[in-house]
Design goal:
Layout: H1 5-39, H2 44-65, H3 70-94, E1 98-105, H4 110-118, E2 124-130, E3 133-143, H5 147-157, E4 162-168
Antiparallel strand pairs: 1-3, 1-4, 2-3
């Protein structure tokens, strides 16, 4: 027996779009939750998890209620993939957490050190031995939102230097530039700073 036109539209268009949207929401939240846990945001991660699982239950409930609808499965998988991508993009825009930048160079590092200290970044310098002789090692623990500014300085003053960036879960008693005021969340210097460990 053929379904009415309105029922077909719901089954093959509206329902898959609903499932797709729900999955984008819950997977995006899930991706952010994992990132927040890795960054040490111990209070906000459970709140995100609460909403994530509720939205997931709604999505999976719709799939199980229409288990013979192939479009639901496609929408479910597509929403998962899209939600993962969106979650990562949102995290990139938020620029949460703290990182350590290591710079290793046989050249004179004084200009880069002056550049960083002029911008109130904490800098530690150590001597090292590389495969081709003596090198200078610069260590700086910075907020992720300042990373682009630091890398710009490295490329400007030590374009041939080796550098690496690693995430830090917790940091205390560091030297950081003062927060800059901004109204937009994505441009804010320290979003959710209340929830950060070791702030």
């Amino acid at each position: 027996m053929a379904l009415p036109a309105s029922a077909e539209v719901f089954a093959w268009v509206v329902l898959p779009l609903m499932i797709f949207s729900f999955r984008i929401c819950d997977v995006s939240l899930g991706t952010l939750r994992v990132i927040f846990i890795a960054r040490g945001f111990k209070y906000i991660a459970p709140v995100i998890g609460f909403f994530e699982v509720i939205i997931w239950l709604i999505a999976i409930g719709q799939v199980m209620s229409n288990i013979s609808n192939v479009a639901s499965y496609i929408a479910y998988g597509g929403g998962f993939a899209t939600g993962t991508f969106i979650g990562m993009k949102v995290e990139e825009r938020l620029r949460l957490g703290t990182v350590v930048v290591r710079v290793i160079s046989p050249e004179d590092v004084t200009p880069l050190v002056a550049y960083l200290r002029q911008r109130s970044f904490g800098v530690t310098i150590a001597d090292g031995e590389g495969s081709k002789g003596k090198v200078k090692i610069i260590l700086s623990v910075i907020k992720r939102q300042d990373l682009e500014e630091v890398i710009t300085g490295i490329r400007l003053f030590l374009p041939k230097a080796f550098y690496s960036v690693e995430d830090i879960k917790t940091v205390a008693e560091g030297v950081f530039p003062e927060k800059r005021s901004a109204l937009l969340l994505f441009g804010y210097r320290d979003p959710f700073g209340y929830f950060r460990k070791g702030k």
